[in-house]
Specification:
Structural class: alpha/beta
Strand content: 15-25%
Shape: globular
Distance between the termini: 86 Å
Number of helices: 22
Strand order of the largest sheet: 1-4-8-9-10-11-12
Helix content: 40-55%
Number of strands: 19
Length: 610
């Protein structure tokens, strides 16, 4: 009987494998022959799965991985997943650090941390967020997280040569310095190793060009060289020829990834140097912290790691909410942290919470306006998080006792939608709610698509906004494919912020309110490093929008000389104000770009006498 059952199982497996092959053999030509919408593709998949009696519906990635080289080129655009992620010019990679307790204790609304209601998860997280789940599967090994994320970008049709890494998981500077260095070193090494394993440089004039094209399936230009991505090798290493949901697959892959990492010993400095010329470069490195762990001396240590942006948990412009929620910092700490981080050159992204205990709706409305009315704040970027109630938190017990009433979805959407009209053109709204599934929350905003509610209110009330995200040319073109773009105009917005002078220099299509790129120039209020003098100017950010283009490649918007023109204008403004030295906070992967513009390495910065 057992032998008969085994024979039957084997027969069924062979039939299923044959049926899967027939599925791909039919669907790929259909996708090539006619353009399909995402809805039509899903309907087609369901229809063919029924025809061939498949047990699982193949994903778009499955289809791409079973296409030939020539067919892949034809169906890639149709099946390309999550194009918005690369629309701003870079491929974001979220890396979660290991769970660790905050030195000051826990904020009353914080759901995570070691031994939390949700298990051993990072502070502020529940373990149900996509980035947290990826980290858990990788054992919080930053090398594995980055390696797997790069693979996901490649198989979904993207060329992730510009990686913007965001380290999540709580107050990163509060962890041991040795852990910080190892964690970040592993990130750089993963970018470098993935590139060296699966990306290949070849000279433009290749004798056997046909053989090269047949062997490699994706290409991009890097300077005067061609970079080809060895997709077949990626398929083999990540076992993509089989069901990607197969049991034990991820554990086997993680083991292989660690084996690659452990082949050699390395250091942070060595991997940073490698990354300067790697085919996959880190063009931005972000960490999360609280204001009391975001002062100048913390920032100096972060500069050594290559950090360029700080996500700062300001949370409120009122003292009492900070006290009753046990934040562990004061308004004075926030103001000092913002000033010192900007004077070191960092881009600063505020986290701001609505509906906190000890606040009212009216206070929230005024508080949001204060972020820009008061020059001590004025963030470069902003994440707005309505306060939510989750089990295991002190706030949960306060709510259960009837002493706290969280903000509703309707109220949050109304406040944020109205606030959008007041946001200046130098600020980007990154998020309007946490990436936490509503099924793990007990009270508060009960919709995961809050931004859609906000957009609807803005449309109904005809609210216009000048914030960066809504004006990025890539987003505008994706929303309005028939838009006719005008030649960009160079604009300069001057404003005071955190005891310094800021210049937001941008290229914009004034007719369509489209933003092509911008630069943040600062005259700091204080010199906090030896590289700086009283006559120094700081470039805190240079960003050109459009779908991410490979280094040296003429992409949709990027690499058309706009960056150089913005740099030239910044230097002109600095010289007009009697500055004689320009300092750039450069990510490790963008140092080579600034070298081409005449900048040289000095300490942690790229500098130029002007």
């Amino acid at each position: 009987m057992v032998n008969e059952e085994l024979i039957q199982i084997s027969t069924d497996m062979k039939k299923q494998k044959a049926a899967v092959s027939l599925f791909y053999a039919e669907i790929i030509p259909l996708l090539i022959a006619k353009k399909h919408s995402k809805k039509q593709i899903n309907q087609l998949k369901v229809k063919l799965c029924g025809k061939y009696h498949l047990k699982k519906i193949p994903t778009d990635i499955d289809i791409m991985m079973h296409a030939s080289e020539s067919d892949l080129k034809k169906i890639k655009k149709t099946l390309l997943t999550k194009p918005i992620r690369c629309m701003s010019g870079v491929a974001p990679i979220a890396v979660m650090s290991a769970p660790a307790a905050c030195p000051h204790g826990k904020c009353t609304f914080c759901p995570g941390g070691p031994g939390s209601e949700f298990g051993d998860v990072p502070q502020s997280y529940t373990g149900n967020e996509p980035s947290t789940m990826r980290a858990i599967r990788a054992g919080f090994e930053s090398y594995i997280i980055v390696f797997n994320r790069l693979e996901q970008y490649v198989v979904s049709g993207h060329v992730p040569q510009k990686a913007e890494v965001i380290i999540q998981g709580g107050t990163f500077p509060a962890t041991l310095l040795a852990y910080q260095k190892e964690f970040v070193c592993d990130i750089y090494q993963a970018l470098n190793d993935f590139a060296s394993m699966f990306f290949k440089h070849s000279e433009p004039k290749v004798r056997n060009a046909l053989e090269t094209k047949q062997k490699f399936q994706m290409q991009a230009n890097v300077g005067n060289q061609t970079v080809v991505i060895h997709v077949e090798k990626i398929k083999e290493f990540f076992e993509l020829h089989q069901d990607i949901r197969a049991e034990g697959r991820q554990a086997r892959i993680n083991k292989k990834i660690l084996a690659v990492k452990n082949k050699r010993r390395t250091t942070l400095e060595k991997e940073q140097k490698r990354n300067e010329t790697s085919a996959i470069r880190c063009v931005g490195l972000t960490i999360e912290t609280k204001p009391d762990w975001g002062f100048g001396f913390h920032g100096n240590a972060l500069l050594e790691l290559g950090v360029t942006r700080i996500e700062l948990g300001v949370q409120s412009v009122y003292e009492e909410p900070l006290r009753v929620t046990h934040r562990g910092h004061t308004l004075a700490d926030s103001i000092r942290s913002i000033r010192e981080l900007k004077d070191l050159g960092f881009k600063v992204n505020f986290h701001y919470m609505l509906g906190l205990p000890a606040t009212t709706k009216e206070m929230d409305v005024v508080g949001l306006r204060t972020l820009f009315d008061d020059p001590r704040y004025r963030p470069d970027m902003l994440k707005i998080y309505p306060c939510m109630v989750m089990k295991g938190t002190p706030l949960f017990h306060i709510w259960k006792a009837g002493k706290y009433q969280p903000m509703t979805t309707a109220t949050a959407a109304e406040i944020i939608a109205d606030f959008m009209r007041y946001i200046p053109s130098y600020c980007r709204v990154m998020r309007v709610q946490r990436d936490i599934p509503t099924h793990v929350t007990e009270a508060g905003v009960d919709k995961t698509n809050l931004r859609q509610y906000i957009d609807k209110i803005m449309q109904e009330k005809k609210i216009q906004t000048q914030e960066i995200r809504s004006r990025e040319v890539g987003f505008l073109v994706s929303k309005h494919p028939n838009i006719v773009l005008e030649d960009p105009t160079l604009r300069v917005l001057e404003y005071d912020a955190s005891d310094g002078k800021e210049f937001f220099i941008s290229f914009e299509d004034l007719k369509n309110n489209a933003l092509f790129g911008f630069l943040r120039l600062r005259f700091p209020g204080e010199c906090l490093r030896d590289e700086m003098t009283r006559d120094s100017a700081l470039i805190r950010e240079l960003h050109i929008y459009g779908e991410a283009a490979a280094f040296g490649q003429l992409g949709t918007i990027q690499h058309r000389g706009l960056g150089k023109k913005l740099m030239k204008k910044a230097e002109e403004i600095a010289k007009q104000n009697r500055k004689d030295k320009m300092i750039v906070i450069s990510a490790v992967g963008t140092r080579k770009y600034y070298k081409k513009l005449g900048y040289v390495r000095e300490g942690v910065y790229m500098v130029k006498e002007i």
